[in-house]
UniProtKB/TrEMBL annotation:
GO molecular function, one term: methyltransferase activity
One GO term (biological process): methylation
UniProt record similarity statement: Belongs to the methyltransferase superfamily.
UniProt name for this protein: Cytochrome c oxidase
Residues covered by region (Disordered): 60-87
Top-level taxon in the UniProt lineage: Eukaryota
Localization per record: Golgi apparatus membrane; Mitochondrion inner membrane
Amino acid sequence: MKSFNHGDFLKSPPSLFTKILAFALIAFAFFYLGEHWSDGYQQLVFFNTQQSDKTHSIAISPNANKVPSDPPAMSPSRPPNPPPVTSERFGIIDENGFMSVEFEVGSFDPELIEKLRNVNQSVEKEESGSSRAKIESFSLCSEDMRDYIPCLDNVEEISKLNSTEKGEKFERHCPRKDQSLDCLVPAPKDYRTPIPWPKSRDEVWFSNVPHSRLVEDKAGQNWILRDNDTFKFPGGGTQFIHGADQYLNQISQMVPDIALGNHTRVVLDVGCGVASFGAFLLSRNVTTLSIAPKDVHENQIQFALERGVPAMVAAFATRRLLYPSQAFDLMHCSRCRINWTRDDGILLLEVNRMLRAGGYFAWAAQPVYKHELPLQEQWKEMEDLTTRLCWELVKKEGYIAIWRKPSNNSCYTGRDAGTQPPLCDTNDDPDNVWYVGLKACISRLPENGYGANITTWPGRLHNHPDRLQSIQLDSQISRGDLFKAESGYWNDIIEGYIRIYHWEKLPLRNVMDMRAGFGGFAAALIDLGMDCWVMNVVPVSAPNTLPVIYDRGLIGVMHDWCEPFDTYPRTYDLLNACRLFSTEQKRCNISTIMLEMDRMLRPGGSAYIHDTITVMDEIQEVALAMGWHTTLRDTAEGPHAIWKLLIFSLMLDVTFVGYGKAVGDLARLLVWNVGVLQAASEGAEKIQLKMTETETPFRPRELLLEKQKLFQSIHKHTYLKGRYDKITSVIIPLGLTITCGAMIAQGIYNMSHGIGKKE
């Protein structure tokens, strides 16, 4: 082996020597920064693997520039305080308001007192968190669960159903608590950052939804095409193969009063396919919620969501859909494969419940225009049923028929006695939807006209809807004041997010507000010009504000966060949770909610949690176990307020910060192995491969989970307990130093052996 000569080294080309010197300087700079600044300056996330308790306010205090006045001079010592006033006597107030010393003490059970004491102690332990089991880490689920929807893919419960002829298998059947999701749903192997909106309306990556069955089944119907590494959506459908735009023009010409984007703002598309109908309505200022069951074409809703179109898995079967009464201005069914007249029209009665007073139902189907005897019989049945529902057939043209719902109950009450279906009982709540069965009756319209008197868009977004007065709230403040206060609050908050976190530059398209209230968060995003849509979720534990949300021209759904949500994995770019965990912690397991958040978030997505400091420790612990990157911030109320903002990021790709963390993880070999230099060199080569864009995807989730396991192992050693922050501040820059040192050593070795030398 040729020995290394210092003279040869000095005679080497200047450019290579300069590179080596630069590497050395960078290594020492990293170590210096990590050692001196990582503990005290949290914005240097490059050197921080765990957020400390120190936080930075996102608002500047109005007293920031004020100079404190001198402290007051010490006052002379005060005389001792007088002794407390002694009570002259004790007693019991009698029924006349006088104190009496004559009373009897009944018998008591000493064992009962002891039991109560034990219960109180256990409650105190539970509230203090001492009885909560520590979460180590979550593993990745198997690859076959990448499209898993827990309550819709529960094969065990579905197999126990007595009958499925009415679509029972497409409804919610959630796993038992002991079988609930306890792992992290993985993304497809070659998952890529979604194509941004509006380009995503017309094409998405094949690798993100790697299912081609729909292409084969719908060949020739202009739904979806495969083009190399993308799916493309020409905009057609089974009944509008020439494109959704032409189809929408036809509907507008048939019934001009529909007035898309003005009178008609919120639409439900039933059996939506890949949601081209809703996708093209967006350009007309109409928000369309596209729904379909997870049936033989099970990925149609997944395609809709990947396109950036509002969509949700839902089915007309045996239960009410999770939307309020009088929610939709227009409901649309184009070859949706639903028998509306079965069981005395119980499914169309559900449409009637959700359709706004004076709203429209558009049906594009073969019975409308074909003359075969079976199809004509279906049309007659539909005509008869809609007549008994007091619907007016406004227009029938080509293959489309459009009906209008009455604006009040006068037609219903004027029907002949015994006409079916009957009106629902007066005590029936049409907004009660959580696990409520369908009812074979006509939902009554409010006699005061609530829900029918809606202003046009965009004025309805900020007008106080009439149904605001019908919301049951435990508050002494007027509903109008609460509505106004919520709107102002979220406008201020999101203005801050845009200014500080640059939301306008983020790829935000699919957004969920997990505790929506009156929909102020979604309204603020519209006011501030964010090009996204929001699924407003109203928890079952909160007042049912869904009618107000829909009256404002927004969309939403009822849900219980103790159970999984009916959507595909990787649906949302942003999750907003304000006061969700502090409200639900007595009902739900926090880790259950966060696992569901992880399932719903797209890789690269974020979650903003605004909640009390009392729940933040557990939330951060679960987040760390899931491999999320977290940042704890102060709110505008200041560092001593009870409210905090916790930001989660589900990383997709690795930025320069990620490289530093990846190298820092290699430093675990300093504790456990002797071959530090070799391992660091290998790690540096892997990172260099990533930086040159190799075909092998870099997996930050797996890396973060490995890092979590490392630090859990470190914590188990008693001599390192209580030193976690110091360890992270030293190991990570030391890992960088070792890696750069390995590069320098490799360069010196190459020079000494003539490797890479130009001839």
